[in-house]
Amino acid sequence: MGEPEVMRAVRITGHGGTEVLEPAEVAVPDPQAGEVLVRVGAVALNNTDLWTREGAYGRPGDPEALSGWRGPIAFPRIQGADVAGRVAAVGGGVDPGLVGRRVVVDPAVYDTDGPDANPVGLMGSERDGGYAEYVTAPAARVHDVTESPLTDDQLATLPTAYGTALGMIERGRLREGETVLVSGASGGVGIALIQIARARGARVLAVSSGSKTDVVREAGAHAVLDRARDIAGQIRAAAPEGIDVALDVVAGELVNEGLPLLREGGRWVVAGALGGYDVAFDVRRLYLHNAQVIGSAMHTPTHFALLMDLARRGEIRPVVAATFPLEGAARAQEELARRAHVGKIVLRPGERSPSATR
Questions:
Q1: Topology (CATH level 3) of domain 173-295
Q2: What is the CATH code for 6-161+300-348?
Q3: Model confidence at 352, in pLDDT bands (50, 70, 90)?
Q4: b/e sequence 197-230, b meaning 16+ C-beta within 10 Å
């Protein structure tokens, strides 16, 4: 196939701290029937990388159990869900015209083949991912973005963060003219939520820390609320008539404080638990006001196709906070965990420099 037989990769050898991230030379995977081999140009980091490495997802009936995204992980595992690159080779039954095309990989492993399938696995968790020079993926999950004006770094930020954001917005049925609350607004998903919600014609209230206010406002937020102060009071002041949709990656106390501020028929969409997973709220605020609490994990194939259309047209502008070479994966994850950045952190497997760039 003209590709090297061995590649550089970073694997996790078990659950734990960044010490379990192990640089290694491994065999370049062969694309099976229906698959393509992608030469990785850039791979973006996500909170999912940290939580999968730590085993922080718990299991039904045992929330403290060490577990990957959807259950036990087969180690060693190459992390990295968000891949942009070029098709290097194809397996049986795949159009050879894809070779050389610039692509983004949909990292979800779906429960069915339908357009509204649910993700039940994730590249980098249930199958090997993009912390490597090459990765295989089903041809049906590879989207040609050759014409996109976005860089590989920017394209790599899209699958999980923007896919999750678009899934939340679609499941929350956000409409033009509605008022939306976005929590965790300076993170990768938060910036994506602001940009997409603003493009839909919504009024965006964003919750962030004071030091990141300017960047969050630049992303399109109409009002920025300081998470260190009385959130409920700030929401009431900014939206006296209430909010239509909450797009929440924080959960914790915010759910209890915010649910009473939903308007009639409001929707509270949860796609993360940065503020804690053990949530209590007054259920009367739910049924008396026809409100809905909606769980949202990533996206469907339909959502992802919509996202790729936005990418081809350059209608979204991802923010890249920092880039690292592949061997800097541990340092990159440490920086992600500090949450001092705005936007996304990206690894470039083609780079061999030991220093990070900014």
A1: Rossmann fold (3.40.50)
A2: 3.90.180.10
A3: low
A4: bbeeebbbbbbbeeebbebbbebbbbbbbebeee
Token reading at 186:
């300076």
Local confidence band at 353 (pLDDT 50, 70, 90 cut-offs) = low
Q: What is the DSSP letter of 153?
A: H
Cβ atoms of 3 and 89 closer than 8 Å: yes
The owner of tokens 């990295």 is 80
Residue 164, helix vs strand vs coil:
helix
Cα-to-chain-centroid distance, residue 251 = 17
Residues whose CB falls within 8 Å of the CB of residue 344, separated by 6 or more in sequence, listed in order? 44, 45, 156, 157, 161, 188, 318, 319, 320, 321
pLDDT in tens, 265-317: 999 999 998 898 899 999 999 999 999 999 998 999 999 999 999 999 998 88
Which tokens is 114 given? 């339908």
Place of tokens 């010490």: 19
Contact by Cβ (8 Å): 190, 160 = no
User: CB under 8 Å to 314, separation ≥6 — which residues?
Assistant: 148, 149, 150
Q: Are 195 and 221 in contact, with CB atoms under 8 Å apart?
A: no
CB 20 within 8 A of CB 77: no
How far apart are alpha carbons 234 and 332 in whole angstroms? 34
Domains of the chain: which residue ranges?
6-161+300-348, 173-295
Say how far apart CA 157 and CA 320 lie, in whole Å: 8
DSSP 8-state symbol, 117: P
CA 248 to chain centroid = 13
Q: What is the CA radius of gyration of the chain?
A: 20
12: amino acid identity, one letter = I
In degrees to the nearest 10, what's the CA dihedral of 2, 3, 6, 11? -160
The one-letter code for the residue type at 249 is: V
